[in-house]
Design a protein that fits this description.
By secondary structure, this protein is an alpha/beta fold. It is built from 12 helices and 12 strands. Strand 8, helix 9 and strand 9 form a beta-alpha-beta unit.
């Protein structure tokens, strides 16, 4: 048994059991990966993967346990590496943040700028995706921090700390009938074509739930992951937009009008997610504190200990 075999197993699982995709990701041959997995299965005297011909089609019951242990082992090896870096390269390294477009565009910029000034030798990378993708990147060790709304907090192996609460607004073209039809209600919203977030993004599932509970079906004509895309199509007259209130700027969006919709929908919470077993470099604690001043190093460590 060796570490290369463990890495091959984890990458195959990450690539949905595709050996060809795993070989591309790891820059090695398919035959080499297949041979190493076969050798490990022979050593363990069991099958990790179910096969149909040459294809892997499922993970066996013992394979599920082995995959979990492989991930844990590789995570601990990464922690050992980070400990070494912490004591030999104090202010050098890399920080990867996984987040949604809305958070990257409207919540992170000030903190990112301040952090980059404080740590010029830390390479900062931002990956964008939906909340599920954000959570999985943190769990897989592809990102140090995940920042997203709602569903990220449901993952058992993530420590999720609340950052802030936000709500929604409606944006329309200037002169739209809704602007003179107060108060704003759900019943009035369903009269018009609606452009909003993909329901996998940024509180979209909560919005859908609110309409469903009221027995209403919104006329969603277009969904997007990007608030700026939503505003673009509203400006073209394709519908009204429902988006995070922080995404509307009166100066930048002067061609659009805004109506507060916070009375129609519960507030959503943006969470910061960390893998519970990860070793965090000092500069990661500093970034968290810059982003959310209430979350200093002591607060984060206390939360990790209580997990």
């Amino acid at each position: 048994m060796n570490l290369i075999q463990l890495r091959y197993i984890c990458e195959i699982v990450r690539q949905n059991l595709s050996i060809s995709q795993a070989s591309e990701a790891l820059h090695t041959s398919q035959s080499g990966i297949s041979r190493q997995i076969q050798l490990l299965e022979e050593e363990l005297k069991l099958q990790i993967f179910q096969r149909k011909g040459k294809r892997l089609v499922a993970i066996t019951e013992p394979g599920q346990l082995i995959v979990a242990l492989c991930k844990r082992t590789l995570n601990e090896l990464e922690n050992i590496k980070r400990v070494g870096e912490e004591f030999t390269q104090k202010d050098k390294g890399a920080l990867t943040i996984a987040t949604t477009h809305t958070q990257a565009r409207y919540f992170l910029p000030v903190a990112v700028k301040k952090f980059m000034h404080a740590y010029p030798d830390v390479a900062l990378t931002i990956h964008q995706g939906n909340p599920t993708q954000v959570a999985e990147q943190v769990l897989n060790g592809e990102a140090d921090i995940g920042i997203a709304t709602e569903s990220i907090s449901t993952y058992e192996n993530l420590l999720c700390l609340p950052c802030y609460q936000w709500n929604r607004c409606i944006v329309t073209q200037q002169g739209h009938p809704l602007l003179d039809d107060a108060p704003l209600t759900l019943e009035k919203l369903v009269r018009y074509p609606l452009i909003t977030y993909d329901f996998a993004f940024t509180g979209g599932s909560l919005v859908k739930q609110v309409f469903n509970q009221a027995g209403l079906e919104p006329n969603v004509v277009l969904t997007a992951i990007d608030a700026d895309v939503i505003k673009t199509y509203v400006n073209l007259g394709l519908g009204i937009g429902l988006l995070a209130a922080m995404a509307y700027n009166p100066e930048r969006d002067a061609n659009l009008a805004m109506l507060d919709a916070s009375h129609l929908f519960p507030a959503s919470t943006t969470y910061l997610g960390l893998r519970k077993d990860a070793f965090l470099r000092d500069y990661v604690y500093d970034f968290i504190h810059i982003l959310v001043p209430e979350l200093n190093r002591s607060a984060v460590i206390s939360a990790l200990k209580m997990r």
